[in-house]
Amino acid sequence: MARVILICGLPGSGKTALARALARERRGVRLCPDEWLTVLEIDLYDEHARDLIETLQWRLAEELLQLGQSVVIEWGLWGRSERDALRHRCRELGVGVELRFLDVPVETLWQRVAARNADQPWGAAPIAQDDLLKWAEEFEAPDAEELAQFDGPEP
Which of 5, 34, 90, 124 is the most exposed place for a label (fewest CB within 10 A)? Predict the structure, then answer.
């Protein structure tokens, strides 16, 4: 049965590794705006372009779901309203929706991001430690009440 798996976390939390593993396990299609932006040679910090790509990715996700294909959404999903909107859309479509939240200490995030900054393509758009700290403060982590509104993992 088709299902959406939402991956939620800050840079360096392991979203891509988890999304790739889940896509393999569930035979799902993984949608990651960072990869599309990189291939199109668009600045990873271009919020307008990111919004457009996420809109296109959601349209593709809906088509895939209608065909019975599961989808792994790797958008970060830093705000509750964003997660709520996707959950509501999935409920309207009649598909299950999981939320996988990667809660990683900021110190660990920075170690991973600093190492990644040296690699391509990420080195072309490095993340500064001050930005990561600011984002960690802005991030709305899902609480138990929110997590309870999502489906559990498929057996």
Answer: 124
The pTM score is 0.93
Q: Please classify residue 150 by burial: count the beta carbons closer than 10 Å to its beta carbon, then call 0-12 exposed, 13-18 middle and 19+ buried.
A: buried
| Residue numbers of the chain with a pLDDT score lower than 50 | none
Contacts 24+ apart (CB under 8 A), 60-66: 60/29, 60/31, 61/4, 61/29, 61/31, 62/93, 64/2, 64/29, 65/2, 65/4, 65/93, 65/95, 66/93
> Which domains does the chain carry?
3-147 (3.40.50.300)
